[in-house]
Specification:
It is built from five helices and five strands; from the N terminus they run αααααβββββ. The chain is α+β, with helices and mostly antiparallel strands and about 200 residues long. Among the domains are: about 70 residues, DnaJ domain (Helix Hairpins), CATH 1.10.287.110; about 55 residues, no CATH class. Strands 1-2-4-5-3 form a five-stranded mixed beta barrel. Helix 2 runs antiparallel to helix 3.
């Protein structure tokens, strides 16, 4: 019984599809099952039904069928067969890092920044409202100063910007920075020369 061929027991070829094996098993089960027989079932029929069940158990499961076929040395070629020829795995080496492409992009980016920066030069005397030494300012009447272009009429030039808790030198006047950055120590211009050229 241990050497009995399960395919032969079910009456199918070794390359039979799973569907063909199932149909053969059902046909045998109908003829051998004790409930379907009118006369008393013999010991041999019960024994054969148990072997048919075992064959179905092995051949209906693709993993078990593959192991069984390997033990027989059989290769399956059925349409629903799960046994396949061994294919060695393919290992791909990782792609090299694109240093050249990255370098080209970096050079293009730097060039674009330099060209854009050169084409959008802001005149140096355009006020940015951040007071510093040399900024030209006007008085707003509320004790504060704000920056203006030195090419226009202005009231004073900032000598230095200091913190609120500090004191300006005695030869300058102190005004609050309108932006709230501190105290501006300014040199007031001569009223007759209010435009610096």
């Amino acid at each position: 019984m241990a050497t009995e061929n399960l395919y032969t027991l079910l009456g199918v070829k070794s390359d039979a599809s799973t569907r063909q094996i199932r149909d053969a098993y059902r046909a045998l089960a109908r003829t051998l099952h004790p409930d379907t027989r009118s006369e008393s079932t013999g010991h041999d029929d019960l024994n054969k039904m148990a072997r048919v069940n075992d064959a179905w158990h092995v051949l209906s499961d693709s993993r078990r069928r593959k192991e069984y076929d390997q033990s027989l040395g059989v290769t399956q070629s059925g349409s629903e067969s799960q046994a396949t020829e061994y294919v060695a795995p393919v290992f791909y080496s990782p792609s090299p890092f694109p240093w050249r492409g990255l370098l080209v992009l970096l050079i293009l980016g730097i060039t674009a920044v330099l060209v854009f920066g050169a084409s959008n030069d802001v005149p140096s005397d355009t006020p940015d409202q951040l007071l510093q030494a040399g900024s030209c300012v006007i008085f707003d009447g509320a004790g504060a100063v704000s920056e203006v272009s030195c090419a226009t009429t202005h009231d004073a030039i900032v000598r230095q910007l200091i913190g609120y808790d500090m004191t300006c030198p005695s030869d300058t006047e102190s005004y609050r920075d309108r932006q709230g950055m501190g105290t501006a120590c300014v040199d007031r211009l001569n009223p007759s020369a209010t435009v610096l050229r």
